[in-house]
Amino acid sequence: MLAEYITIYNAVFRGNLEFFQGRYKPVVLQHLSETSVGLSVLYSDWPGGTEMVIPLRDGGRPGAINAVGPQELLEPEVIASLRDRPDMGIETRRDMVDLLERVIDETLEEVEEEREELEAEAEELAERERQAPDELSPEEREQIADQREDVEQRQAEIAEREDAVEELTEDVRRLRDELAEDIETVLDREEDEQEQEIAAVPADQDDEEPESEEPAEVGDPEPEATEADPNLAVFMLVRRENGVVVGRLARVVAETGEQTDQSSLDMVYGRRFLELDGNYILIADDAGTPRLTQVDTDSLEPILFGDQEIAAGSMLATSGGAVFAVMREDNSWYLGRFTAGLELLERSRVVVDPDTYILFSGPRVYVQTTDGSVRPLNQTNMTAE
């Protein structure tokens, strides 16, 4: 993800030596030229004509997540380049916000450790300073003065780092708000596209099919496909395997319960499925991993599997046209918010119980965390309130 940002960063500032002169030290600038600095969008310019610049942080440790100053990559031109993409760069920008939040957490931990060490050192120094001057040699008095200067300088550095973290926290809050707005824009755009596709169906059908004696009502694109057969119902057949309840969708005759057909998906987790945008959404096994699954309502066969691993026992819920389920990232569980097309829009920052109940109330969604407490989250950006 950082590699993608660095690539865009170098591309948007290609040939802009003045930009780099205002941000980098002379030891870096002496190797840059206006004709080659940054990355050209033409492959033919790359060999011998590329000077990639990576904003390394002063004092950054090799391998540390803040060795490359990620906030330095968030120039307005970089964000604008991402937002010009069809998906507005949602995934890439969300990954960067997550990284910045990790940088903030780790920096605060480092600052706290340094402060504790410095406080202990300052207390020792204060003890020495309380000694009578005539009890100390000139060398000892000079040593104490130097140590006092060092302590005060390090205290000032810690204060500067705390100010920087506070400023970065504000930037992250702004970026997350912008991201939430763009997620809504993408969702609205997808809904508009779906409505346009549906609205276009009747005209196509009129050109290809003979007129029926009883024409469909205005606005009904596919009467036969959208009207469910009242004599049939979709049922979840369940069984228990290794102590886990799994199931399979089946179509049954409404009056008798007799099965007419069933899905090939025989490892559906839980007993609930949603109907959203003309398809069923459920949690099913995909090569040994539970994932959100989109199922055709006519054939009961899978259309699409999501990318994220979902908790097998996760509750499945919907609000505002989005799907909510518990997902795994690394070794922790989070509440995820997905489109009807199973794309991840946002996930919670707080770790949740994989079996949490999901409750919606107004703009909030409530979850249970691993310590048993109930936390309200903003439904749109999934931040804790």
Structure report:
The chain folds into 2 domains: 186 residues, no CATH class; 149 residues, Methylamine Dehydrogenase, Chain H (7 Propeller), CATH 2.130.10.10. It contains 7 helices and 14 strands. About 6% of the residues have low confidence. 37% of the residues lie in helices and 23% in strands. It is extended. Helix 1 crosses helix 4 and helix 5 runs antiparallel to helix 6. It has 385 residues and is of the alpha+beta class. Strands 1, 2, 3, 4, 5, 6 and 7 form a 7-stranded antiparallel beta sheet that branches.
Brief overview:
This protein is an alpha+beta fold. The protein has helices spanning 2-12, 17-21, 26-29, 76-83, 90-129, 138-208, 223-226, and strands at residues 232-241, 244-253, 259-262, 268-276, 279-286, 289-296, 302-305, 317-319, 322-329, 332-338, 344-347, 359-361, 364-368, 374-378.
